[in-house]
Amino acid sequence: MTWFARQLCCTRPNVYKIFGKENIDISLLWRISCILHHDFFGDLSQEMKCDVNFSLPFSSGTE
């Protein structure tokens, strides 16, 4: 955890706070993806394709 916090330029307690959040912003997710060499955006995209009940929160429902 110390290595990850150092790579993210924050403290260990802040890393635990990030892990405890339900949502994180895109720039933070991008930084984490780069640090861990993993495409979390691809994971999210795949999850959205598999979820037949997925709808965007800002959808007007008129499509």
What does this molecule look like?
With 63 residues, this protein is an all-alpha fold. Helix content is 60%, strand content 0%. The protein is elongated and about 40 Å long. The model has no long low-confidence stretch (mean pLDDT 85).
Oligomer: single chain
Number of helices: 4
Q: Uncertain runs with pLDDT below 50, 5 residues or more?
A: none
Structural class: mainly alpha
DSSP E strands, number: 0
For the termini, the CA-CA separation is 45 Å
| Major pleated sheet | none
- Strand coverage percent: under 5%
**Helix and strand sequence:** HHHH
**Estimated radius of gyration:** 15 Å
Mean pLDDT: 85
Tell me the overall shape: elongated
Layout of strands and helices, then pairs:
Blueprint: H1 2-8, H2 12-20, H3 26-36, H4 40-50
Keywords:
63 residues; mainly alpha; 4 helices; elongated
Quick take:
The protein is 60% helix and 0% strand.
